[in-house]
UniProtKB/TrEMBL annotation, chain A:
Cell membrane found in the keyword field: yes
Protein's UniProt name: ABC transporter ATP-binding protein
Organism: Pontibacillus marinus BH030004 = DSM 16465
Residues in ABC transporter domain copies: 2-249
Entry's localization field: Cell membrane
GO molecular function: ATP binding; ATP hydrolysis activity
TrEMBL record, chain B:
Taxonomy of the source species: Bacteria, Bacillati, Bacillota, Bacilli, Bacillales
Organism, as annotated: Pontibacillus marinus BH030004 = DSM 16465
UniProt superkingdom: Bacteria
GO terms assigned for molecular function: transmembrane transporter activity
GO CC field: plasma membrane
Entry membrane topology: Multi-pass membrane protein
The keyword Endoplasmic reticulum belongs to this UniProt entry's keyword annotation: no
Subcellular location: Cell membrane
Family matches, as InterPro entries: ABC_transp_permease
Keywords per UniProt: Cell membrane, Membrane, Transmembrane, Transmembrane helix
Chief localisation class: membrane
Transmembrane segments: 12-29, 58-78, 87-106, 139-165, 202-223, 229-250, 262-281, 287-305
This protein's name: ABC transporter permease
Pfam families: BPD_transp_2
Length: 264, 339
């Protein structure tokens, strides 16, 4: 499904600010896997997502999706089968366009965008159906400008736009981090809904350990651009937040005073 | 005076096509494109040199638009592939086009008075029909023939053409490709994650925009009866003025509404200008200053108007509240404290 081999990425190489963001990382996702990724700030989680989605190219290594080498395929070509939701609720939608126009854009991910009408009545019906199958209360506001929606609503729309066309891989970059607890839970529920509905292969970055344990079937912990801990389904079910802390400590062999605060 | 106003209306309609092009880059793509100053003349230059050499005016105008399209695309390539800042890319193209336009024309000025243009051809056809007489009838009936234009030909024909271009733009901006183009100006990061090639959109958007501008230029030289290499100086400001005045006066609630506002804005700009030029102390050389004043006014007045209205609202509410406070707690407590 998704295969990462020996990925390396160094920023500002050859300067005093040199930083190894990803250090020889390998990871394989099987069809239907839902992997949660945790790690402190600067561990390379976001860089990893950016490399998978093609925003950044790795210095070394190989990325394959469905046994096709996509390592240096540009972002806009890759996003045919990669759906993404960003941390910033403003980033995933176009504020000056209506909900239906945004959804039509999402549809254009898999169909070549031509001179057909963007929002046809047939599509309108399709959008309505899709939106009403989730508890987002947006189905009657198709004409509303997205800029008028709240952060939570925009994030829900981003999530539905990212998954509308059933991408091969869904990348979630702390997509609930900017929301209040109630909204975050709402988005979490929608995420679980939509992922199970289409059996999407998902990689989710989070800072919330509870969330990382409660969602998905695999868990990885990153630090300094490496995977330092890996739990499969059975192991993950047994894990507690405390265990994760200990794992982190063990792997790093240093006190967690600072990281404890960061990781909650 | 009346003739000047009708003249302003006619040229306003022709400039409206250019304003629609500027709207596409300035508002939709969020790309302040200065190529306009050059591509406007390029359209006129290509059209006029072709007409002088015997090409049909219709094809010549189209070719002018095509040349503008290419010019716009080059600006787009400079920005997207060359990573040049939008303003600088536009300026580079603008000064390059100055020389290119002179090359195309071969001399700084081409008279077209004896050539067959869209307007001379159309006029022959127009005069074979009695439309002018029908349209003149209400003026005759009211006894205000002095207020009638000498002919409705330009107003009607260019008016229809402008509506056509407006509708074309409205339609395009609602197609799948058009939506992607709008999203490129609205949230580029997002469109990329939805597998759209933003670079391509910017290049094509600039091309279409400058095609509109160049067609407008091709029509202006035929309307004026000459092409001049200096015709495009300050054209971007005229375009921006049209967009800003239009949006300010006629609203921007939807795409169709905004494009209509831009067309009306282009006409309004010409009318304001021609009225200003009628004033005794204003000379033709003050044109640019007046343009600057109009644009500044269009930008500043709506803001001040809103601030003033908000203040009135605030003062009214304050008065009501102080009144109740006065009744409850006495005059001294309610008095507003000032420095």
């Amino acid at each position: 499904m998704l295969q990462l081999q020996q990925i390396e990425k160094v920023f500002y190489e050859g300067t005093p600010d040199e930083k190894t963001a990803i250090n020889g990382l390998s990871l394989t996702l099987e069809e239907g896997d839902f992997v949660t990724v945790i790690g402190s700030n600067g561990a390379g989680k976001s860089t990893l997502l950016n490399i998978i989605s093609g925003v950044l190219f790795p210095d070394q290594g190989l990325i394959a999706v469905d046994d096709k080498n996509v390592t240096f395929l540009p972002e806009h070509k890759r996003s045919n089968w990669i759906g993404r939701v960003f941390q910033d609720p403003m980033a995933g939608t176009a504020p000056n366009m209506s909900i239906e126009e945004n959804l039509a854009l999402a549809l254009g991910r898999v169909e070549r965008r031509g001179l057909r009408k963007g929002v046809s009545s047939k599509r309108k019906k399709q959008f309505k159906e899709w939106l009403s199958s989730f508890n987002v209360k947006l189905e009657d506001r198709l004409n509303t400008r997205v800029g008028l929606l709240s952060g939570g609503e925009r994030q829900a729309l981003s999530l539905l736009m990212a998954t509308f066309t059933e991408p091969r891989i869904l990348l979630l970059d702390e997509h609930t981090a900017a929301l209040d607890p109630a909204r975050a839970e709402h988005i979490t529920n929608i995420t679980n809904d939509v992922v199970s509905k289409h059996n999407l292969t998902t990689l989710m970055v989070t800072h919330d350990m509870e969330q990382a344990l409660s969602m998905g079937n695999r868990l990885i912990m990153m630090d300094d651009g490496e995977i330092i801990f890996h739990a499969n389904k059975e192991e993950k079910d047994q894990l507690t937040v405390e265990d994760l802390m200990n794992e982190f400590q063990k792997a790093k062999g240093k006190t967690m005073a600072n990281d404890k605060a960061l990781l909650k | 005076m009346i003739n000047a106003l009708y003249g302003a209306l006619e040229s306003g309609l022709i400039y409206a096509i250019m304003a629609l092009g500027v709207y596409l880059t300035f508002r939709i793509l969020d790309f302040p494109d200065l190529t306009v100053d050059g591509s406007f003349v390029t359209g006129g230059a290509v059209a006029s040199i072709l007409m002088v050499n015997g090409t049909s005016p219709f094809l010549a105008t189209l070719a002018g638009g095509g040349a503008g399209f290419i010019a716009g695309c080059i600006t787009g390539v400079l920005h997207t592939k060359g990573k040049i800042n939008p303003l600088l890319a536009g300026i580079l193209m603008m000064i390059a086009l100055w020389s290119i336009n002179l090359r195309i024309m071969g001399r700084p000025n081409i008279p077209l008075l004896n050539e067959s243009t869209l307007f001379t051809q159309g006029k022959e056809f127009w005069q074979s029909m009695p439309v002018d007489q029908w349209l003149m009838a209400p003026f005759n009936w009211l006894g205000i023939t002095a207020f009638a234009p000498s002919t409705f030909f330009v107003i009607i024909s260019v008016g229809v053409l402008v509506i056509l271009f407006k509708k074309l733009l409205d339609w395009f901006l609602h197609t799948e490709a058009g939506l992607a183009l709008r999203a490129t100006g609205d949230n580029a990061r997002m469109v990329k994650s939805l597998s759209a090639n933003t670079n391509q959109h910017i290049i094509i958007g600039l091309g279409i925009s400058n095609a509109f501008v160049a067609i407008s230029g091709a029509l202006i030289v035929q309307y004026n009866g000459f092409a001049d290499v200096g015709l495009g100086i300050g054209m971007i400001i005229v375009g921006l003025a049209s967009v800003i005045i239009g949006e300010g006066l006629f609203g921007k609630s939807s795409i169709a509404r905004t494009t209509l506002a831009v067309v009306l804005g282009a006409i309004a700009y010409r009318l304001i200008l021609s009225v200003a030029l009628q004033l005794e102390f204003v000379s033709a050389s003050d044109l640019k200053l007046i343009t600057a004043l109009i644009v500044t006014g269009a930008l500043v007045v709506p803001t001040w108007w809103k601030q003033w209205r908000d203040k009135q609202e605030r003062v009214k509410k304050q008065k009501e509240l102080t009144k109740t406070l006065e009744q409850e707690r006495g005059k001294d407590v309610a008095a507003a404290s000032t420095d």
